[in-house]
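Box S1 | Example of a co-folding query
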Amino acid sequence: MSTQKSSFVVDAMLGNLAKKLRILGYDSKYSSSIEDDKIILIAKNEKRIILTKDEQLTKIAEKQNVSFVLIRGNDEFEQIVQINEKFKLDKFEVVTDNSRCIACNGKLEVVEKFRIIGKIPEGVIEREKKFWMCDSCKKVYWEGTHFEKLQEFATKLNDRIK
Ligand SMILES: [Zn+2]
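Box S1 (continued) | Returned holo structure for zinc ion
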């Protein structure tokens, strides 16, 4: 029973939430200068759920039959719990193959070491085994020390919502 993962359009005030959702593998469009009209349009055309703190925007969304979550609070953990209360999300996991680029929401693809020489510090290339590159902005990723923390974040989420 596999359904399409939910996707989101995130308003300008919620950049950190967008980043966390991308790490968790959720396609999350975000721009620091995105306008309300555009958010509604993107949500409509691409069947995305609007995440916003702007009550005014949710009223427009409601009128136009667009899905939304009115986000309260500033903590990303609680914000994701809140999304899950309205739209049941999949079990949370951090699998870099499925993560989205934190910078641009592009897809990550495994990349050979020789292709990233000169792009990231040599020490990292020597130390790490596996690398990913964003198919859009070409940012390079690896599972560094922050990776365990992110997995803990996902585990905590699963514990909280089960
Ligand atoms: Zn990117």
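The chain has two domains: 8-86, 97-142. The first helix runs from residue 15 to 23.
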